[in-house]
């Protein structure tokens, strides 16, 4: 077999298979055109056309061919797409249905997969690239790491992402069912049938193009007829049931808590590069089902385990079961001369199918001394030569198998015990038994259990889960059907449905001999000296690599996995994990159960980002939230910035006076005008986006005192208090003002961007740590519109439209009052984020526009000016007020901010962050502390993020002592100013620091107080 030496579909059998021979499909692989038929996978079509090399291996760039026929395929990972926008990486050729015009290419190999220059590196230098090669080799010199990293990253990964926008759409569907059946083979169909007849709402998900599993290529019969006919009858019945949903081409990728399962349905990926357009609408490419099931039945089957022998990665080495699948389901013989190496009876099916297809079975090599069973007898009846007590110890060939070296072996002594004979062949099939597909069960955290009788792990189960068939270590067809029906009945009964009888078809009873525990086949040479024996074909993990890992002191299978990369990537250990564990167990002189298994994690097979994202992209990526006043801001020409999900007015550029072309102010000009309006007259801000959380309950005060750093037990009704909130590490996470509305009723405000997270934080602590506290939280951010009027004329303006007594002594700073504003019920808070006389007016959001317009109607004579968030930042920074997330970065404590006054260490109970704030680290004097910076040149506006040093002449790299957190030009000060965090800054007042810039300039600045304007706070108390 080769890429171009044979006619089209030279390895297609004349008869057989489930393909549609009446139609021919054309496709392209690595730039060459081939043909196949509907019903083919890309893998079966490539084999039919004699394509040997489908990829190059990840680490050594060795030629690799197709090994399996399903999700367990490690080598045939291809890139799909005929256009740049349609590119899809990491597609298994064994799972990609063939369609006309399909374009695919290998993911590794340069200049091409046939002649890969990196293959020379792997061939000549492979012995110098053991596990840990990267860690040990590229440690020095340290200065070269960036160069090393560039090329290591270039070599890493499989495939590439598209460089153009995806034309397709994807969606999510939330579903509920009584019974979810994962897998539609014999066990799954039997379980679904039993549950459906009992009246349960049933969903069946199966990853294959056709449902039926192994029944589609089985040699066995049910009721004396081919097994696939029974499957077809069951599927017809299930399709006719209103309580059943069938999902072919759907992989259960993740199994989460409380029977929550994610299903990836490939809806149109079998039809073309992009989803088809129907009636002017492009169809969905794939769908992510988020299923909450009452009961889950795992009928995921088992993967055949290859034998580990020298040269087992040469193209032409296949799983025995895959050979049967290609012959019986796809009408393809992937070679001419077969050598079968097996340790069990099931492997014999490949030889029988191969023989019946008219191809030559050179020999069956059975590791057992005296195999006996119906399939063994059938092989002998066919005249097939069987060599017992032996195994294929090495496959010969480079780009294709040319021969098999066979020898007698001593499994217990792990050695070759007889002479070696070399048999010419082009295909070697191996079977080391079956490994139940326990991946989904492992996602739940349940640990699997080893069973010596099946030489495999079976799943540990949690509540609401049942396993049946191959995943449960049950392989005889009659027993598989019985287990499936039993599981379906139990699941339906658990959901309260009456049990209905299901009559099982009669299955053949086949006599089978016991399998032998053979994982790694010995070679004449020791493992570390002999030819490579691959355990994990996708990650190029060899038996020698695992043995070396144990020699270097790795004993935990999880450590061995990470050191060698066994089971990494998209493979997730489907073929190699059990063999790898067995090899580690032999080297460590332990049993396989003692070594244990690694932890499987979602996703079971790759899922496209499109399916994960669904419709949450482009315009729907994140909701855009607007205040009730948004249209007014738009009509006044406001520029907006995104704060959290909100669109907030950034600044309001006006037309420049005398500009003939309507040119508008720059941001600097607009902000300067807005700042002066607030300081000299009155400004107004739409502050509706601030998070507002309504807190009620008898224990509300105590709860506030536990989540805030300061005290709350004496806050009177009608009063407000500023509070700091820390995470449990003592670092500031949010701040805001909380007001006492009634004795057990408070309104907490949070930062705009942190509102949702803070509500979640409150609920987390209440539900998990303090459930005994009687307190409730409700987000009311959208309920209230907040209008902040601030400046010297604010009291006069509000007095014209309010019935409140606004006298300084009756309505003090940090008070709130209830009254009417513009005839609308309102809460008015006298709090300030600008340092000026300020009133925050809160009204029900539907009345916001009326109140806002009334304020402007009366405010014209006072020079009422709207200002945006940029002006707000300048005004608050002039007063030294912090913004969480700007002056803080998750490493700043209240004391670092100079806000010890907001911390109550003597509260009668602990509060979040208290213990962390007593650690020696948080008490260090040289912690970064918040200070003000005044540039020596008042015209300089320091860059935010600029690094601060004490000695600008120090050799690079300079010791950095801090950085600028906020920096602005102040119109009222007529100079630049900044806030910064500096190590030990609170004791460095008056000292000069330096800020070297990328352009070579160095700015000088003096460390000063954080309060630049009205240091006594007189203006906000007038």
Summary keywords:
single chain, 1022 residues, alpha+beta, 7-stranded mixed sheet, 6-stranded mixed sheet, 23 helices, 51 strands, 21% helix, 27% strand, elongated, disordered N terminus
Percentage of residues in helical conformation: 10-25%
Continuous helix count = 23
3D shape: elongated
Which parts are unreliable, with pLDDT below 50 for 5 consecutive residues or more? 2-6
Mean pLDDT: 94
Q: Using only CA atoms, what is the Rg? A: 36 Å
* Largest sheet descriptor: 7 strands, mixed
Structural class: alpha+beta
Query: How many beta strands in the DSSP annotation?
Result: 51
Q: Tell me the strand percentage band.
A: 25-35%
Report how far apart the termini are. 93 Å
Structure in words:
The protein is 21% helix and 27% strand. The chain has 1022 residues and is an alpha+beta fold. Strands 8, 9, 12, 13, 14, 17 and 30 form a seven-stranded mixed sheet that branches. Helix 7 packs parallel to helix 8 (348-356), helix 8 packs parallel to helix 9 (374-381) and helix 21 (794-801) packs across helix 22 (848-859). The protein is elongated.
Could you give a short description of this structure?
The protein is of the alpha+beta class and 1022 residues long. It has 23 helices and 51 strands. Helix 12 packs parallel to helix 14 and helix 21 crosses helix 22.
